[in-house]
């Protein structure tokens, strides 16, 4: 199984979650919110083979988009294969810092345009702008995390070759289900966005991508194993592009 977007460092018990990831053999992209957190996390995840640490600078922490953090991003990006969480947020929560977000996002895209990487994108309320900027900087095959925007913009995103990562919340909502119906099988990833989601009284964990695979197997009319294999094939395709174009 694959969890393409998980905030491992934000769990109250990250080492336990990392061990669960290893035990269950769940390939997990551990996104970070600012470069300092990425740097801090490196020694803590180094021994876990299934955890891939991603270099991020989250749009909703614009107050942390300092020159120092951007310098760290540029330095760490020289080696980073996985990027996230990056993007824009023009919702009510993020619109006050829209100008700062765009400035940072453009600098990030300018930094990572040199070669293919696995890129996890936050796009709430800014889907069209992000699609435009990705095209401007020729950034291809990004993974839009928890997409919730218009179907019309989704079609543009898919036409440009990008992917969507789907979480347990999306499969339970009518809007999420409508979005999933528009995504070809070969553009789907699975994610949890843990620990932000909850199942009952507990935080979601990477193992909960199983519920997404169950839903996908139902709508695709396939067995669970077939849905799991499809997502794994999609992920391998992205990695093949990265490995074929090393710096």
What does this structure look like?
The chain has 247 residues and is an alpha/beta fold. It has a single domain (2-244), classed as Alpha-Beta Barrel (TIM Barrel), CATH 3.20.20.140. It has helices at residues 14-24, 35-45, 67-77, 98-112, 127-136, 151-159, 168-172, 174-181, 209-220, 224-244, and strands at 2-6, 27-30, 51-53, 82-87, 118-122, 143-145, 163-166, 188-190, 198-199, 202-203. Strands 4-5-6-7-8 form a 5-stranded parallel β-sheet. Strands 1-2-3 form a 3-stranded parallel β-sheet. The protein has a two-stranded antiparallel ribbon with strand order 9-10. Helix 3 (67-77) runs parallel beside helix 4 and helix 9 packs across helix 10 (224-244). The relative contact order is 0.14.
Secondary structure blueprint with pairings:
Blueprint: E1 2-6, H1 14-24, E2 27-30, H2 35-45, E3 51-53, H3 67-77, E4 82-87, H4 98-112, E5 118-122, H5 127-136, E6 143-145, H6 151-159, E7 163-166, H7 168-172, H8 174-181, E8 188-190, E9 198-199, E10 202-203, H9 209-220, H10 224-244
Parallel strand pairs: 1-2, 2-3, 4-5, 5-6, 6-7, 7-8
Antiparallel strand pairs: 9-10
Short description:
The protein has ten helices and ten strands.
List keywords for this structure.
247 residues; TIM Barrel; 10 helices; 10 strands; 15% strand
**What characteristic shape results from the CA principal axes?**
globular
Q: How many E-type strands? A: 10
Percent helix, as a range, is 40-55%
Q: What string, H for helix and E for strand, traces the elements in order?
A: EHEHEHEHEHEHEHHEEEHH
Class based on secondary structure composition and strand pairing: alpha/beta
**Which CATH architecture?**
Alpha-Beta Barrel
Instruction: Determine the strand fraction and express it as a percent band.
Output: 5-15%
On the 0 to 100 scale, the average pLDDT is: 96
Reading side by side through the largest sheet, how are the strands ordered? 4-5-6-7-8
The number of domains is: 1
Gap between N and C termini: 28 Å
Q: Specify the CATH class.
A: Alpha Beta
Largest sheet: 5 strands, parallel
CATH fold-level topology? TIM Barrel
Q: What is the name of the CATH superfamily?
A: Metal-dependent hydrolases
The parts where pLDDT drops under 50 for at least 5 residues are none
Task: List the total number of helices.
Answer: 10
């Amino acid at each position: 199984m694959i969890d393409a977007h998980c905030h491992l460092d934000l769990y109250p018990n990250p080492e336990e979650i990392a061990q669960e990831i290893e035990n269950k053999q769940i390939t997990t992209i551990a996104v970070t919110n600012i470069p300092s957190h990425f740097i801090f996390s490196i020694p803590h995840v180094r021994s876990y083979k299934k955890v891939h640490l991603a270099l991020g600078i989250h749009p909703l922490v614009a107050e942390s988009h300092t020159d120092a953090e951007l310098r760290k991003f540029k330095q760490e990006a020289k080696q980073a294969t996985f990027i996230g969480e990056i993007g824009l947020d023009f919702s009510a929560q993020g619109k006050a810092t829209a100008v700062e977000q765009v400035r940072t996002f453009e600098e990030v895209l300018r930094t990572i345009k040199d070669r293919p990487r696995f890129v996890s994108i936050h796009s709430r309320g800014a889907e069209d702008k992000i699609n435009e900027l990705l095209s401007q900087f020729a950034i291809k095959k990004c993974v839009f995390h928890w997409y919730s925007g218009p179907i019309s913009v989704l079609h543009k995103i898919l036409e440009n070759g990008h992917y969507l990562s789907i979480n347990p919340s999306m499969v339970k909502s009518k809007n999420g289900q409508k979005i999933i119906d528009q995504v070809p099988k070969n553009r789907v990833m699975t994610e949890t966005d843990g620990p932000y989601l909850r199942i009952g009284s507990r935080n979601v964990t990477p193992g909960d991508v199983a519920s997404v695979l169950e839903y996908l197997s139902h709508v695709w009319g396939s067995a669970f194993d077939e849905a799991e294999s499809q997502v794994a094939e999609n992920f391998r395709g992205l990695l093949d592009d990265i490995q074929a174009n090393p710096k």
